[in-house]
Amino acid sequence: MIVVSDSSPLVALIDIDQVSLLPRLYERVLVPEAVWRETFVQGEGRPGREEVARAPWLERRSVVDTLAVRALQEGLDAGESEAIALAVEAKADLLLMDERLGRRTAQHMGLKVAGVIGVLVDAQHKGMVPAIRPQLDALRDRAGFRVSDELYRRVIMDERE
Predict the structure, then answer these.
(1) Which residue range is the domain that position 54 belongs to?
(2) What pLDDT shows up at residue 108?
(3) Do 82 and 34 have their domain in common?
(4) Is 114 helix (H, G, I), strand (E, B) or coil?
(5) pTM for the whole thing?
(6) Across the chain, how many H-helices and E-strands are there?
(7) Which residue, 6, 65, 107, 111, has most beta carbons within 10 Å?
(8) pLDDT above 90: percentage of residues in the chain
(9) Three-state secondary structure along 14-83?
(10) Band of residue 45 on the pLDDT scale cut at 50, 70, 90
(11) SS3 category, 95
């Protein structure tokens, strides 16, 4: 399975100590240069970043189609634009992205998209996470990740917690 990640899901999973789910779920994750810079260069010194940057399951890759990246940057940031372009180039099975406009753009381009909550739910369904509520709480409290009350309740209800 080819998976490309934007910085948001990667950073959130690092911040809640669940980044080890990624290689267990997907084996290998590709990140474009802009996501690498956002996550590991600008985030240098933050807990967990150095270990993940050296992880064998994380592959840093340059986007070839710079014209597509420039076109996508009309409405998206560099990381989102490169992640979408890389997912298209690599014929990714899944793009990990949380930002709403980026997700819509990627879906419009025919990409399958999941966010950090989707990763956690998938991990729970596969028995890697015993309960989703503590993960959502950690996203809000430890990672500072915005999870609306409505989404929080819906995920808890869907997962029957």
Answers:
(1) 3-115
(2) 96
(3) yes
(4) strand
(5) 0.93
(6) 10, 5
(7) 6
(8) 90
(9) HHCCCCCHHHHHHCCEEEEHHHHHHHHHCCCCCCCHHHHHCCCCEEEECCCCHHHHHHHCCCCCHHHHHH
(10) confident
(11) strand
